[in-house]
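Page 37, top half.
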Amino acid sequence: MEERYFKINSNSISQNKFSLSKSESSHFINSLRGKLNDKVWLLDGEGCAYKSIITSINKNLVSGVIKKRVLNYGESSYNIHLVVGLIKGSRMDFIIEKATELGVKSIQPIIFERCIKKKLNIDRSQRIVESAAKQSGRSYFPEIFPVSSLDAWISENHSNTNILYHMNGLNYLKNSLNKENYSYNIIIGPEGDFSEVELKKLEAIKPATVSLGSRRLRSETSAIVGLANINQMLKYIDG
């Protein structure tokens, strides 16, 4: 049977009993045609999942009993953070959705020189995160940070290993990863690429500059390929 996931707030759990919100209850009843005794997974968005059984459907509210609590359900032991230039239209939504499915812990939108879009609807983005996390079965919902300038982000970033995906990259991804490093920033440029000035500024954080191939990729394609590659490589390193 296909596993079904629902968001749960921690204040909706008491003594191993839970109640779904009105919106999640409606989704269970009307969209999924859920029934009593159905088994479901509850995701709190903070790294915990609960294997549960539905025991009550009272009008439009659904409740049940928790049978098992699982920490870091659907999560990697590594922290991957996406740093990406704002892009216009639904393509930014697409990046947020797919980055969530691919396991990032946070998304930092950056205004680069060649960015056309200057703002991001954080509330809308968080709803996309929650939907993608439920679809993919993640217990942690990535944080969407407010839009930042490149200078501000660089000034605050001194701890993680930085991977800069760029067409002219000369490093190999496998040489930039190891078991001792648990946090990585994946840096993706905007439409129109980084400027020469921005590439110079990024040298301050000493990134490993990695190519994704001989073809020029869109920002959203670079994000998906780059995240998929590092996930696969870290899994290989873990053995």
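Page 37, bottom half:
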Amino acid sequence: MKVNSRKIFTTGLGAAIIMGILVPVLIFAGHDNAEEKAKGYCARLSTLSSNIDQRIANRDSRLEAKRTEIANRIETRQGERDARILEKRAKWDANRAEHFAKLEERAQTDEQQQAVVAFKETINASIATRRAAIDEAIQDFREGVKEAIASHKLSVDTVVSTFRNSIQSAFGKATSDCENGVDPRTARENLRADLRAAREKLASDRQEIEKLKTPKETLIAARREAIKKAIEDFKSELESARADLKAVFPQE
């Protein structure tokens, strides 16, 4: 099962949002030598702010769509895996029942019949234990993935909220500058600086999220080791049960 939590963050949040901020910044940069156009900057603030808000909202929608897509894909793959496991177990159960029937036919003495009964009980109990351990390992893995995604989602949402608030604060300050008679060119440069700071913090916060992310490989390794142990324990019990069974049957 491929679960790449990095995609949950980068889709709709990386370069696309940053470019959404750069566009109005580049517009400001084109009027450094035109005082009258610089004055027009204040009149455009509301439109520019609305455009950026819309860009961020669009990225949010794409991010949620991607999250839903990933969740659905995980659920589908888990269902397919569960179906395959049930199918294989049903086949193994049928083969085991056939093998037990052949052993019962070979058992001629009371000792042999009792040995077959004991062998069946031991194997069935060992298989139940093995399956329970494997199911637990799979469930632990799935819970680990679920918790990692939830933690990542919370961190991303916090970063997005901080980024959005910074943008809104920057435009609020710019509007206040214009209303209070601050030179438009100065107000514009202040806004550019605030937008740049918000963008840099976004990049920094993204890096911190990646550092805290639970590696998928860690969860896979834990699942693999748990399943390996369950199989090895079963094999050990199986060999012991076989030895006890062979002891009461004549060797050919």
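Margin note: Residues 1-34 have pLDDT under 50 and may be disordered.
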